[in-house]
Amino acid sequence: MADPNPTPGIHHVTCIAGDPQRNMDFWVETLGLRLVKRSINQDDPGTYHFFFADAEGTPGTSMTFFPWEGMSRGKVGSGQVSRTAFRVPEGSLDYWEDRFDDYGVDYDDRVDRFGETVLPFEDPDGLPVELVETEIPDDDPTVPWTEFVPEESAIRGFHSVTLWLADPQPTEELLETMGLERVGTEEAEGDTPGDERTRFEATGTVGQYVDVLPTIQGGRQGHGTVHHVAFQTPTDDDQAAMRSAIRSRGLSPTQQIDRHWFRSVYVREHGGVLFELATSDPGYDSDEPLDDLGGRLVLPGTFGDRREEIEANLTDVTVPRAEQAEADD
Questions:
Q1: pLDDT reported for residue 188
Q2: Does residue 124 belong to any structural domain of this protein?
Q3: Single pTM value for the model
């Protein structure tokens, strides 16, 4: 069997939130990401699915949430994505610390990791998030959204995810099968003393890193935890080849599932983390004009026939707007 084309990196990360308005306010206004899609969980249509990304919803930039209001607080542990990190331009962390002070965001001291400066913080549900200062190349594919945060400080897509695993070796071998290269190991500063963080690098420029840490700490899914991480398999052929390679590792990926804005394959990897493979097309602008992304509740496929019923079961939310925020100050 021929090796699949390597994944360029992370496509999106999907997390669990509580209150949908609080989630919306934080990720749009505080962090300055654009709401590029307001939809529903296609497996649980009584729940929203929010997609926050760069200005155009570029692959590798979208942080998505299921706001399950009735679920309890989760705990990060083995078999989970423990942290999600975003890229920000070099020299912008002073801006972000000042902004976090203004908005009452809990953040920790900066740490150095693989030669880069990292600012750890939490969202309102306790989700561990990080900003990593990095050089943004002139030909970078991301397009900053600047309604709330200036371009020189704006988030520019994913930097990395960190996986907590009881036995890292099978997952590390899977990442190499997916085309990521082991590039280094160092002591995991800010984690359990003595632990080692191993970094794997994909071929793209956005969301290119996956870090792996060993831990037996127990966790549970709930508010403030990651539901799954999706990797880019840009075309159907890429995805089919990657699916076959994953099956060769003794895993059982699903058949392709149409998620309307991309086509997906899911697999629970050896350590318990739910991986997704996602195509690049049709994209978030396939059913809304680029200028109007996130402007309405989008109900894909046959869900559109149930709009009245679905809307009646969803909490009303308001998308933050800069002009309104300025008027309220």
A1: 75
A2: yes
A3: 0.95
